């Protein structure tokens, strides 16, 4: 028994020391339930609100807030654009679900500073695969139309850029989904209003050794979609795309947008990467949600499975910086 406990202790020490290594290991994205559709349906329509103090950080000039994700139990990551640089910041919360507490910005990262020569000024909607961040950049005066870059956020106080960058000339990169599933990692890159989504795959679920080779395997286009079997045939101008999987490794994608009637909509799709591109996505549910205090899906939105086991939570933020940046949480 003592030998077994000793071996477990050694394993824990090894895992905790992973952030000191040059390798980046990511765990599987936690599944909220064996039934993703049921979990999606159970999301309440009305949010609670918590706020983030801007404190000593100066708001970037121009642009707007774009995406939001939860990092661990006590941090949020929020992306945005400005007149000259793409960025994200990290806010520390006193427990994500303790909504009466205020968070505080602890780290501001200008992506251009970590990737010399980059002249993009707009960071995308994005996704975290546990401690690994994949985020798109676009706009500005860069000759490259868009890029996807990666950060290791194992230590929220010291985000570490990875030696991995995907450059794209075909389309923008306004919405990013990332998940590891089985022995693969899958990346979804939504173009302008996500009317085109490129799916990239690696043959490993770890970011070691770098650089990795993300291969483009399928491209989905809204004009070619086959809507047979969809719950409805509409397609939103999705500003954020996030993956989720169930306990059997079935893959789903959630898109967030604000429709023409200013309603906030989350759509749930099952992803069939093995299919022809026209039937790759199948819409299985649509949910209308209410936002308060200036928050909108037109800008930053995202999902999380970290707070309550076997449950989906959603997050959204407002467009502009204020002394107290407001976040809605479902």
Textual characterization of the structure:
- The protein has 330 residues and is mainly β.
- The protein has a single domain, classed as Tachylectin-2, Chain A (5 Propeller), CATH 2.115.10.
- It is 8% helix and 41% strand.
- Strands 2-3-4-5-1-21-20-19 form an eight-stranded mixed sheet.
- It starts with a helix and ends with a strand.
Give the termini distance in whole angstroms: 44 Å
**Helix content range:** under 10%
Give the overall shape, derived from the CA principal axes.
globular
The largest β sheet comes out as: 8 strands, mixed
Mean pLDDT score: 87
**What's the helix count?**
3
Alpha-beta classification: mainly beta
Number of domains: 1
Q: Measured on Cα atoms, how large is the radius of gyration? A: 19 Å
Determine the strand fraction and express it as a percent band: 35-45%
- At CATH level 2, the architecture is 5 Propeller
Total number of beta strands: 21
Features:
eight-stranded mixed beta sheet, 41% strand, 3 helices, 330 residues, 21 strands, five-stranded antiparallel beta sheet, Tachylectin-2, Chain A, mainly beta, 8% helix
